[in-house]
Amino acid sequence: MGPGDLKAILQHLPFIEDADVLVGLETSDDAGVVLLNDEIAIVQTVDYITPVCDDPYLYGQIAAANALSDIYAMGAKPFTALNLCNFPTLNISKETLAKILQGGLDKLKESNTKLIGGHTIKDEELKYGLAVTGLVHPKKIITNKGAKIGDYIIITKPIGTGVSLEAYKKGNVSYEDFNKILTIMSQLNKTASELMIKYNAHACTDITGFGLAGHASNIANQSNTTLKFYASKIPVYPISLELFKKGHKTGISNILYNVYNDKCKFENGIKDYLKEVLFDPQTSGGLLICLEKNNAFKLLTELLANNIIASLCGIVIEKTEHQIIVSDQEE
Ligand code: CO
Ligand code: CO
Ligand code: CO
């Protein structure tokens, strides 16, 4: 299924409006949010992935960081989680499966999330992830909506996990190089989320399967603005950039290109390989945060002080015929 297909399927279902559903299906947000009372809203999300590496413990960590990320992108705090295990019975040891779960559990501990259960099903292809419930004050939910003209855009974590993963599988990237990317993929967006709340983020999403183009397009669409990026400022893994230069891309990149290229305007001078940065699907990517200019500088300083790779890489402008503009000049 490609992006858009799910929307088409959901169209056939009767959609029931509910005043307590603060964030539902219609805004392409990272998680659903339901009002519990004046003080608390419940945030729910589910994400699971096929293995991204041969190290089961690291895979478990990355799957958990990836699942928790949607909670952090909403400005919420994770509270409880359930394991989702599609585990093969053949050709895999119990020890390996235990290491996957240990990786997930350690990330849950780091995020102060309580694991309270889970579900296991036999599946030929290994998959692991989590359903996560978070909490947020109903007035402090950060969504795709809310980016304001003049806001600065900060991206945390470099882009390029998709192209590197595919190249690693084909033997075009060394494990040593790929491991540097895996380490960052295993990092939680916890601190970045706490800091963006501190600096009053107007809009946020995490950059995952739909790539920078897809997730930026959601913010532009929901906020009625255009997001303008400075090509040289978008953070990209050096290894991934080299792969883009050599013409590497993932199968999903082509699908994302077909869906989102029309929504993007690449100004003259943007090299073709740099365009691929917009269409590379991410696993356990970082946050895309829109916030007021002065706060953006403070946030960037504090992110970097916390050893989080981050870059101030664009500005929110008045809505144009394109949702995304990629420029080679900084304003
Ligand atoms: Co998300
Ligand atoms: Co998700
Ligand atoms: Co069950």
Q: Would you mind describing this structure in some detail?
A:
With 331 residues, the chain is of the alpha+beta class. It is 37% helix and 25% strand. It has eleven helices and 13 strands. It has helices at 5-10, 56-73, 94-110, 161-169, 175-185, 190-198, 211-223, 238-245, 251-260, 272-279, 293-305, and strands at 21-23, 32-35, 41-49, 77-87, 114-122, 127-136, 152-156, 203-206, 225-230, 264-266, 287-291, 310-318, 324-327. The strands form two sheets. The protein has a seven-stranded mixed sheet with strand order 8-11-7-12-9-13-10, sandwiched between helices. A hairpin with an 8-residue loop joins β1 and β2. α4 (161-169) crosses α8 and α7 runs parallel beside α9. The chain starts with a helix and ends with a strand. The structure holds cobalt (II) ion (CO) (3 copies). One cobalt (II) ion is lined by residues 30, 45, 47, 70, 208.
What attributes does this structure have?
single chain; 331 residues; 7-stranded mixed beta sheet; 6-stranded mixed beta sheet; 13 strands; 37% helix; binds cobalt (II) ion
